[in-house]
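Thread: "does anyone have the structure for this chain?"

Original post by V.I.:
We have the sequence but no experimental structure in hand. Need at least a predicted one for the grant figures.
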Amino acid sequence: MSNNQSSFYQSYMKKLQEKAKEAVKEAQEKSFSEYFNVAEKKIRTIYKDTITDFYNSYPNHFYDRRGSLYDLIQTKKATDYLSIWFEPSLISYRNGYAGEDGLYDQVFRQGWHGGANINGEMLVPWTAPPVEYDGNRTPWSFPEPWNKRVGIKHGWEQAEKASISPLQDFKRRIDQYQKTEYQKDYENIWNKYKSNIKIDI
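Reply from O.Q.:
Generated one for you, tokens below.
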């Protein structure tokens, strides 16, 4: 092989390698972008199902379900990563946000179905003041139990607690997702883009 032919061959191979790297990099970027879109949607669906099952595990017409648990999950997506976190300030009492030790901790982390923290116990009203639910007024509508210095627990009982908290249940479901669909989703997406790689010289 002459020097000119050798030089041409080396130049050709170098360009081929550069083009191949560019094509693979482009395919990877596209596959990651699509993969994170798929993962974000599936993770949000898993979270929504988790909260729905938590609410449905204890339906009670005395509770005013505002659905704020659905809003806790936050995601941020880029071409090469997907971040997931929870924003405690998005679940608050009627009179405002009480910090992470408020409803975020009591409901989301621990799994209590409503109730009031009275002297360290999660309680709900049941006998005092005596009132039947008429679609408008509930035991929560009457302030008497709150005003009694003595016997504040009279008319209150232990609140209901889920067998597993929404946070624990969500983690369990995400673990299952990672063991099953997570890797398969990426492999399917990558194989699609990989098969379409073209190198133009």
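V.I.: this helps a lot. Residues 3-56 form the longest helix (54 residues).
O.Q.: and Helices lie at 3-56, 103-109, 144-147, 166-179, 181-194.
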